[in-house]
Design a protein that fits this description.
The protein is mostly beta strands. The protein has helices at residues 11-19, 48-52, 175-187; strands at residues 58-65, 69-76, 93-101, 109-115, 125-132, 144-150, 155-157, 160-168, 209-218, 230-238. It has one domain (11-169, 205-238). Helix content is 11%, strand content 32%.
């Protein structure tokens, strides 16, 4: 599958970024020097747990340059999952940003965000851990605690800032256009847009909501410095209790 970069911006994501005094860049403003390539990519519901629990459902990942920083955003728990949507983040789940450097096969930096159970006001305690080297790909590794805070409030420490909460889904797509592209791919033909008018495009995700995790890491980080060549992906991992006997 060909994968190209994309950045989407809407009012909901703007509110999340404003909490950390950040702004998003247009795609043509991103410092990007690589080429398109064939990559393997997962989709939203590629595991049974994600299909059954909206809090594990990854909607989108955004990565861009901030003001002297690198910004990572993970959106989960869209209300398009219907009955599987539950308020907030799952308190037994790890939400992880995985970073590869210089084309490495394995990640050597992981930022892990975890949450406590929701209080009466719906707010949740949150923690950010950093895992480096071999620990970055080991689920059993504890990592280093970077900061603690609460959902809906910005928290900062150790060169990192974090905000998490519910926002309007920032992703924009017209599914009628996607249907034309999918049909062309299926049939091995060129995309026929003769009957599609850009001025009539509509956002098929308008009105949907997501839980968003916004992480900003200063360029003072020893690895995430200006000009660093990185590859980024994200994961949600449910902690399962060990069975006795």
């Amino acid at each position: 599958m060909k994968m190209t970069r994309r950045v989407a911006m809407k009012a909901g994501l703007g509110a999340a970024l404003s909490a950390l005094s950040l702004s998003a860049l247009r795609a043509d403003e991103l410092p990007y020097h690589g080429k398109e390539g064939n990559v393997l990519m997962s989709h939203h519901l590629d595991t049974p747990l994600a299909a059954q629990n909206g809090q594990l459902y990854i909607d989108d990942l955004y990565v861009f340059s901030g003001d002297d920083s690198t910004v990572f955003i993970m959106d989960v728990n869209s209300n398009i999952t219907g009955v599987h949507v539950k308020p907030g983040f799952h308190h037994e789940t790890r939400y992880e940003f995985k970073v590869h450097f210089d084309g490495a096969d394995f990640e050597t930096l992981t930022y892990r965000v975890s949450f406590g159970e929701a209080g009466p006001d719906g707010r949740q305690a949150m923690k950010l851990h950093a895992l480096t080297g071999r620990e970055a790909r080991e689920d059993s590794a504890a990592g280093e605690l970077v900061l603690e805070g609460r959902t809906g409030e910005p928290a900062s420490a150790g060169g990192a800032r974090l905000w998490a909460g519910r926002i309007a889904d920032p992703f924009y797509i017209d599914l009628s256009l996607l249907a034309k592209v999918n049909g062309a791919v299926k049939n091995g033909t060129a995309v026929d847009l003769s009957g599609w008018r850009p001025e009539d495009a509509k956002n098929s995700f308008a009105g949907t909501m997501v839980e968003s995790i916004v992480l900003e890491v200063s360029h003072q980080h020893p690895q995430l410095r200006p000009g660093a060549r990185i590859g980024v992906w994200c994961a949600t991992k449910r902690l399962l209790a060990e069975r006795s006997g």
